[in-house]
Amino acid sequence: MCGIVGYIGNQKASPILINGLIRLEYRGYDSAGISTIEKNELSIMKDKGRVKNLYQLEGIDDLTGTIGIAHTRWATHGKPAKENSHPHLDNSKTFSVVHNGIIENYNELRKFLTEHGYTFYSQTDTEVIPNLVHYYYNKDENSDSLKFLRAVKNACTDLKGSYAIEILCKDYPDNMIVTRKDSPLVIGKGENENYISSDIPAILSFTRNFYLLDDLELAVLERTQVSFYNLDLKPISKDTKTIEWNATSAEKDGYEDFMLKEIYEQPTAIRETIGAKFNEASKCEFDELNFTKDSLSNISKIYIVACGTAMHAGLVGKNAIEKLCKITTEVDVASEFRYRNPLVDSHTLCIFISQSGETADTIAALKLCKEKGAKTLAISNVIGSSITREADYSIYTHAGPEIAVASTKAYTSQVMLIVILAIYFAEILEMDTDLLNTLKKDIMELPAKIEETLKLSENILDFSKKTYQEKDIFFLGRGIDETVAKEGSLKLKEISYIHSESYPAGELKHGPIALIENDITVVSIITDPNLVEKTVSNIQEVITRGAKTLIITNQNLDENMFDLTIRIPETNPFISPILSIIPLQLFSYYISKEKGLDVDKPRNLAKSVTVE
Ligand code: M6R
Known about the structure:
Elements: E1 3-8, H1 13-24, E2 31-38, E3 41-48, H2 51-55, E4 67-73, E5 88-89, E6 95-103, H3 106-115, H4 128-139, H5 147-158, E7 161-169, E8 176-181, E9 186-189, E10 194-197, E11 209-212, E12 218-221, E13 226-229, E14 235-236, E15 241-242, H6 258-264, H7 266-274, H8 293-297, E16 301-306, H9 308-325, E17 329-333, H10 334-337, E18 348-354, H11 360-371, E19 375-380, H12 386-390, E20 393-396, H13 409-428, H14 433-454, H15 457-467, E21 472-477, H16 480-496, E22 499-504, E23 521-526, H17 532-544, E24 548-553, E25 564-567, H18 576-594
Parallel strand pairs: 16-17, 16-18, 18-19, 19-20, 21-22, 21-23, 23-24, 24-25
Antiparallel strand pairs: 1-4, 1-10, 2-3, 2-4, 5-6, 6-7, 7-8, 8-12, 9-10, 9-11, 11-15, 12-13, 13-14
The structure holds 5-amino-5-deoxy-1-O-phosphono-D-mannitol.
């Protein structure tokens, strides 16, 4: 969580930093701050609340420094308050620091530094960093060009936990040092200027050339060059990567909110993700993968590990892999998987799904599986993200930047890609050709059907207007539709703050039906032709108890039974979640708007959860 930005060049740094912070605000919005070097002195301006509070601060326009760092915070240690806002200074005001991550041994370091005369003014874990750097800087009797770097390196050696850090030193007004461990940070290369950001989209309008820093590497940024070092301070050489996304893909482009824009971008995201993976006549291709019939036959089990929405995409993937490839597949949330000593060995393939590729628990689970000798495959939307650098194989969704905290186009693209992956495996394993060919044909028709589904928004808007004041909403489904119920329920609770539960429809009468009373809303997804009658019976049971019902279906149902039926196009059951989730994304969106909430930045949440 938290977003960091940095700039060194010949332009005024503060507008560039604020521009970057606005784009990173989705990562946290408890406070914002910047530090620049003004006439060889460090200046700090910060306040609690959103970035707009920062640019309203008196004096911010007077900053003329051409080097600076900035931060937008998602509070972990210390409440959202000015004193806990970043940047933080050391006691001598020689160093300013912004940090994303958690310093796990900060209590121990704080005690050590207090014993050495340092005073702390915040409750944050971060404040130990500038003081620790100062401690080592002061101890160093040399005063060469690497003294600042040595102090940072020594401090990092003492830090436990996760961090992406930017540091300024007033004695080195033409240098900025950055480093990272388990938290994201990219370096953008410009003409006689360089940028730092927690993610690529925030600085896409300035550059499309990026250096990717690996864990425990340090970079010294000057105006005309960036030098890289490992933790032994041995120089490392790095090439830039050019990113294909363009800057407008990270703008709202006339839409009221990023979430709405991203919902409407799904036809393109799916087209791009399908890309040239296959055509009806040929086998599915992944340039990045080299599985063979032998290597796949050697896999006895697949685990799909992810968090939140990405885990829901994994559930759809399990259905496809088990049915198409006949390989037992388990899906788990990363935060549970990593602590349950999973039965993973060299015959296991572990697939990790993460839009950002930076989710702390997913990365930790991946590292665990590698240690246990499993083959690891990452599915991410971000080229060069941490999971893609850790995994043996990486494949990418092509959803473009997803800015809204609530995931929409990333989810449908993840579902698409994992189903295509299942086809790829099934073709290598020489499974049922007819089934695979029909599915491939249905996939090619999917983008047009998404466009059709998006046209159904008006009825959903009307229903949302009748529902937005409710306290509890239930989501039901069976089979593949139950995975969509889970995702619909998560979407609703995260952006509308309405309590919601999702249940397998058949499980209702084992407890939760006790909660159904007059006028409660129950949303049901019914797309699997084999399960229609069973699900309809379950819905009948809630109608009898007074529930209002919204049905998302591609089946011919008696619409008079329900309060609203949204008829989506028919498609192959393996990919039906890509269509059936769309009305539910819109339902959550409209409810949140009716309630006057900030759809893109729901309370207490951040887009990328880079802490445990
Ligand atoms: O970046 P990731 O895909 O790893 O993120 C995982 C979850 O944090 C994310 O999907 C979260 O559940 C979304 N906010 C849901 O809309």
